[in-house]
Amino acid sequence: MSKTFQFPNGFLWGGSVSANQIEGAYQEDGKGLSIQDIMPNGIQTPPTNELTEDNMKLFAIDFYHRYKEDIKLLSEMGFKVFRTSIAWSRIFPKGDELEPNEKGLQFYDDLFDECLKYGIEPLVTISHYETPLHLVREYDGWANRKMVDFYERYVRTIFERYKNKVKYWLTFNEINSILEHPFASGGINTPKDQLSKQALYQAVHHEFVASALAVKIGHEINPDFKIGCMVIAMPIYPLTPDPNDMIKVMEADHKNTGFTDVHVRGYYPGYMKRYLKDNGITIHFEPGDEEILKNTVDFISFSYYQSSCETADPAKQIKGEGNLIGGVPNPLLTASDWGWQIDPQGLRYIMNAMYDRYQKPLFIVENGLGAVDELITDENGNKTVHDDYRINYLKEHLLQVAEAIKDGVELMGYASWGCIDLVSATTAEMKKRYGYIYVDRHDDGSGTLERYRKKSFYWYKDVIESNGSSLFRE
């Protein structure tokens, strides 16, 4: 590996969060309820169907009132980009109204102005696991075609409002997760064990159409918009050299590439059509859907946390802990405290695979290590966290990103996940921390909400200042 390297000029260094994991203020200024408000245990468990006081997301880290302080801290690190989401139910509290909530719109005006004040580009996810609860209970979420119209109204509203403030947009967060988590990802109220494949894949189609419509509308409102899809990227390896294991890998890959193929190429690939036919699924296309899908994305963004394996041996088909989209653990890899296997080289591999397949710019919008942090007082009397484990994780992954760029991959930027401590999406707890900034908030609801710079804060600041060259220092 070369000892000197800089990332491309204009590379967008930064970090990512979502509205429902940081904002709090769950009913303030006219905000309606979202699905997250009835998911106190995270997206991997069924909803409670009622509000419970132990839901950390109701208050989160109070970013809604503290965003100026937090954006200033991110600017101190030198952020070029800040990925967040708009809470749909702040703009349309129920989701099916004809007119938006002005106070919700104003909050994001103020937030984006604060980012731009420091030269930070907002990267905005339109729908990030936070479908308005009314749309779930009244319409069964994305299983209902009417959702396309509600989403279109929402998209037009925010595109018009922020057309001079936001350039980079993502249509749906980790859209391929709907296959494993139809409630969290698709707002589908039908219990997963009662949901037919027909209904599930029809919901997928509705999201495809809505996403393509967003691309079309966005480019009409502002031709300079860059609109991307967002998927979970996970390299899948055969557990053994058995050819049957390799076929299992291919089939598992197809479940993910099907989502990027439709977004990037504008049509359903042959292998997807075969899967639908083999499973007795007939997708209903409304007149014009085929043309709408041809509005393809400008770039592909993705989350990367781990790789997995597949096998044809039923006795070895044991799903990995904490894994959102299936897969068998790799016996050659270590794992985080939450069972997510650590594979930096897998990031280089998946970047090459995606770029070879599409020749579209890529954007890493999530990558990071969830860990238990200990807040200490250092020799200077400052409170901090010595998170060398996080620094090591991020450095090893960024070195592989550099290798992928050398391989010829076009990468727009890197926004690590949870740049400030937030409520975990998978487990809804604070003790699983990702940030460069420690937030004094705990799972029992205690804490001052004070912010403290971790050791990784200064490390990442150096990475950004040097445009990545600091990664290669001895």
Automatic annotation (TrEMBL):
InterPro entries: GH, GH_1_N_CS, Glyco_hydro_1, Glyco_hydro_1_AS
Keyword Nucleotide-binding part of the UniProt annotation: no
One Gene Ontology term, aspect cellular component: cytosol
Highest taxon in the source lineage: Bacteria
GO molecular function per UniProt: beta-glucosidase activity
Classification via NCBIfam families: PRK09593.1, PRK09852.1
Similarity-based family: Belongs to the glycosyl hydrolase 1 family.
Descriptive protein name: Amygdalase
Gene source species: Paenibacillus polysaccharolyticus
Lineage start: Bacteria, Bacillati, Bacillota, Bacilli, Bacillales
